[in-house]
């Protein structure tokens, strides 16, 4: 029997050996990804290599390579691929100061991504927004509140950004050391890139001081590369010191590859290589062949775009050696093997995650928890909050019932979004509630949408058909349903729908409008492209590039009738946009608003701005906004005027501010009794805010950015010097400082102790801080630890080095311990232009804010 077993075992080993030996090495999952990639690259033609180095990589059937698109998004949930749990926008999650919770969030996000990819894989090769390579997190420093994309970051502080960014990477990529990676994350946009949006394709961030480079712009990227081992880095659109970032020898070769020993993938931002040669852009190279060669030679491995198709011509012209192309391609193929994308899914444990995790109950609860932890109570005069549930409440403002606003940008689509109005309705009967929109975000005329009165084939909203040609020829390439007012824009390389071209496409949207009453209905558009509106088969309006949400038609609607609406759209070049809504136009009458809310005991005003006016390279023609950025940071004047009138009427006002960045709320601190910063809080935002307003949750979020008093406190937007910016370099007093946030209880800091007054190599300094809850409620406190080097007159006033969010019961004291290693005492060395622990005397500052006068100090020496 024993001999028979040995014989069978030997036969099995021979069979395995035969199977292994009978297939090419790149197909053998027993080999390392490096070995498999090297073998596969050697079998490819030059033209095939070039095709695999573009984000949309075609199938190569002769080698069994499936189609794959490197481009996927997961900024705050799986983006742009249908149903997904939508967590708060990144800046809001930064306000949680809870990197452990952020790790849990992105573990959930990666679960959903893997489940969705498995589902998409059943249809064949993976298309855009279906793959396993997530182009997140954005760890650029939010240096100026005017930047529209600052909402995608974790704030203005390098340490906070690094800690939050590493949590995202670890949650997405999964545990290290397994046979297959869960996903691949991407640190973007490397590195000196924080607006403006309107000129990012030609802007040169030149003359950046070495101190600002190493102390502000690079630390978060270094953390993600060297500590979290992020698998991808995305280079930015702009130039740095004269070179486009995606062809920057200084950034990509000297710093990233050589100094940091990064051996992962570098991906270009979308169409950034075209900026090398496009007229009006950088124009550093004469054509796409030179641009592609330059980018690959400086380490950009995969292009989001199509210029790399010219690489074979670049080789023939002697601009680049094919061996240099092989270096990049090996990195790309290695990554695909690491993810298991080239193997049988049955071998990959991550591929077995069930689709039921998508928007699951557990993930919805996690979205609610993160939304709660993101909320920052900025002001609470005379403890007007929390609200008594017996009060009559008027909910006023343009953001009170806007679900799409809550999604932020780079978002997925939740099963349901709770708006602030819906959240308050969970607490109050209709008899105690007044809803009055009051005003638009920025305009003196507000549009009360009737979009939800449109439906077709039993589904609410519009049926959408897309063709990847400009004449609606043939069968549609994509069909889908649009259930909310349109907000489509391809800047930032965002397709109107998955599978639709960014250029040279056409679309048709149809629905039936069944008006509930007879009235005039305005059709508003803001477009970049050719648009035609038809009603009941008759063309009623058309045009090119409508601006400023123009009213292009008014329908005299009659109750009981049906109106078949059709919108045709065509676009040929870059930067398509289509914003559409329909409804009754109501001129803002502040007196009427006051009269309608006169019986309310308190006003909850939902204001601020919206991703419709701030974001990535947007074509918005509204005073005060430019290209997705803001020109001024004050609250839009129509909202300020309404708040002032409510104050004059003797109303107590709780202002809930929705925004992706800091608003200069100086007048509002006088017209409003309480101010709650809500960011763009995701699908559970309305519930979370209502929980805070009515006292079922005690807020503990902290500002990850400085709230300035006015635009006049800001330096030139295009100046990348940190002088005068953020809490670290600001000389004037802000409106609300970085790290600020109130609670429904109070905390007192005792005198901290330090385990050693001299920190030496290999040692830990243990800081123990007694924190007492002296109020009437249990609550959370964010303990913040800053470092100051008294002898440094040119550096930051102080810099965050640790934080911990802790729960302390009322009437108790908690001893919060924080370990500081020598590495935590890194400071800029002006002699060597490096960050390193410099010997000498420092001060450790600690407390619940960055405001110096509220912090306690303890001395320490670095040996």
UniProtKB/TrEMBL annotation:
GO molecular function: alpha-L-arabinofuranosidase activity; xylan 1,4-beta-xylosidase activity
Record has Hydrolase as a keyword: yes
Keyword field: Hydrolase, Signal
Claim: Magnesium is one of the keywords in the record: no
Pfam family, one: Glyco_hydro_3_C
Domain of life, per lineage: Bacteria
A biological process term (GO) from this entry: xylan catabolic process
InterPro entries for this protein: BXL (IPR044993), Fn3-like (IPR026891), GH (IPR017853), Glyco_hydro_3_C (IPR002772), Glyco_hydro_3_C_sf (IPR036881), Glyco_hydro_3_N (IPR001764), Glyco_hydro_3_N_sf (IPR036962), Ig-like_fold (IPR013783)
Stretch forming the signal peptide: 1-22
UniProt xrefs under NCBIfam families: xylosidase_Xyl3A (NF041776)
Family: Belongs to the glycosyl hydrolase 3 family.
Protein name in the entry: PA14 domain-containing protein
Organism of provenance: Bacteroides oleiciplenus YIT 12058
């Amino acid at each position: 029997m024993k001999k028979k077993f040995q014989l069978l075992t030997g036969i099995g080993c021979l069979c395995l050996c035969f199977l292994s030996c009978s297939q090419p090495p790149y197909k053998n999952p027993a080999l390392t990804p490096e070995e498999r990639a090297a073998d596969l690259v050697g079998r490819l033609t030059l033209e095939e290599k070039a095709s695999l180095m573009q984000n949309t990589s075609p199938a190569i059937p002769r080698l069994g390579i499936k189609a794959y698109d490197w481009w996927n998004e997961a900024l705050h949930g799986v983006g742009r691929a249908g149903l997904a749990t939508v967590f708060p926008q990144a800046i809001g999650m930064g306000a949680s100061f809870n990197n452990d919770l952020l790790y849990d969030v992105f573990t959930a996000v990666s679960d959903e991504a893997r489940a969705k990819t498995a589902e998409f894989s059943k249809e064949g090769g993976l298309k855009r927004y279906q793959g396993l390579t997530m182009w997140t997190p954005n760890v650029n420093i939010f240096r100026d509140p005017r930047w529209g994309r600052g909402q995608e970051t974790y704030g203005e502080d390098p340490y906070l950004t690094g800690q939050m960014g590493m949590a995202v990477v670890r949650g997405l990529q999964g545990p290290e050391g397994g046979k297959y990676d869960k996903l691949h994350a991407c640190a973007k946009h490397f590195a000196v890139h924080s607006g403006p949006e309107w000129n990012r394709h030609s802007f040169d961030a030149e003359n950046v001081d070495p101190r600002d480079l190493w102390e502000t712009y690079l630390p978060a990227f270094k953390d993600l590369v060297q500590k979290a081992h992020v698998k991808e880095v995305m280079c930015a659109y702009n130039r740095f010191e004269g070179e486009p970032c995606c062809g920057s020898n200084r950034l990509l070769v000297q710093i990233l590859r050589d100094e940091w020993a990064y051996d992962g993938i570098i991906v270009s931002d979308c169409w950034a290589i075209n900026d090398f040669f496009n007229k009006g852009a950088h124009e550093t190279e004469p054509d796409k062949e030179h641009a592609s060669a330059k980018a690959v030679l400086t380490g950009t491995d995969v292009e989001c775009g199509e210029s790399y198709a010219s690489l074979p011509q670049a080789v023939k012209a002697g601009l680049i050696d094919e061996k240099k192309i092989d270096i990049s391609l090996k990195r790309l193929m290695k990554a695909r093997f690491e993810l298991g994308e080239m193997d049988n899914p049955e071998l990959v444990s991550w591929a077995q995650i069930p689709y039921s995790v998508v928007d699951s109950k557990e993930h919805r609860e996690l979205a609610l928890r993160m939304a709660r932890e993101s909320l920052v109570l900025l002001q609470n005069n005379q403890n007007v909050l929390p609200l008594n549930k017996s009060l009559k409440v008027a909910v006023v403002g343009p953001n009170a019932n806007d679900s799409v606003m809550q999604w932020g940008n780079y978002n997925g689509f939740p099963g349901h979004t709770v708006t602030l109005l819906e959240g308050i309705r969970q607490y109050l009967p209709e008899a105690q509630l007044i809803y009055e929109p009051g005003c638009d975000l920025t305009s003196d005329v507000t549009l009360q949408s009737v979009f939800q009165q449109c439906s077709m084939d039993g589904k609410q909203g519009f049926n959408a058909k897309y063709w990847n040609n400009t004449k609606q020829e043939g069968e549609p390439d994509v069909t889908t349903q649009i259930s909310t007012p349109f907000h489509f824009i391809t800047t930032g390389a965002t397709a109107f729908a998955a599978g639709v071209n960014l250029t040279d496409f056409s679309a048709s949207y149809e629905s039936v409008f069944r008006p509930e009453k007879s009235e005039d209905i305005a059709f508003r558009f803001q477009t970049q492209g050719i648009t035609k509106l038809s009603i009941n088969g008759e063309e009623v309006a058309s045009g090119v590039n409508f601006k400023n949400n123009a009213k292009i038609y008014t329908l005299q609607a009659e109750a009981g009738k049906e109106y078949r609406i059709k919108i045709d759209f065509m676009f040929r070049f870059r930067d398509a946009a289509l914003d559409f809504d329909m409804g009754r136009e109501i001129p803002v009458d502040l007196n009427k608003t006051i009269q309608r809310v006169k019986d309310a005991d308190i006003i909850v005003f939902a204001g601020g701005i919206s991703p419709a006016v701030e974001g990535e390279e947007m074509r918005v023609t509204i005073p005060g906004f430019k290209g997705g950025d803001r020109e001024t940071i004050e609250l839009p004047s129509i909202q300020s005027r309404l708040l002032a009138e409510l104050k004059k009427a003797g109303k107590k006002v709780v202002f809930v501010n929705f925004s992706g960045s800091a608003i200069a709320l100086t007048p509002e601190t006088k017209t409003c009794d309480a101010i709650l910063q809500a960011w763009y809080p995701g699908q559970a935002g309305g519930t979370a805010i209502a929980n805070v307003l009515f006292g079922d949750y005690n807020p503990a979020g902290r500002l990850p950015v400085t709230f300035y008093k006015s635009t006049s406190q800001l330096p030139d937007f295009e100046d990348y010097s940190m002088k005068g910016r953020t809490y670290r370099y600001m000389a004037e007093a802000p409106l609300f400082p970085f790290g600020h946030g109130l609670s429904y209880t109070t905390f007192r800091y005792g005198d901290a102790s330090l385990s050693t007054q001299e920190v030496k190599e290999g040692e830990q300094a243990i800081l123990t801080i007694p924190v007492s809850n002296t109020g009437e409620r249990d609550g959370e406190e964010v303990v913040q630890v800053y470092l100051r080097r008294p002898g440094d007159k040119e550096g930051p006033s102080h810099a965050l080095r640790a934080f911990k969010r802790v729960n302390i019961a009322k009437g108790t004291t908690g001893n919060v311990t924080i370990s500081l290693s020598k590495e935590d005492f890194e400071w800029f060395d002006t002699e060597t232009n490096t960050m390193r622990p410099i010997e000498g005397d420092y001060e450790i500052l600690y407390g619940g804010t960055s405001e110096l006068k509220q912090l306690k100090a303890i001395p320490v020496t670095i040996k």
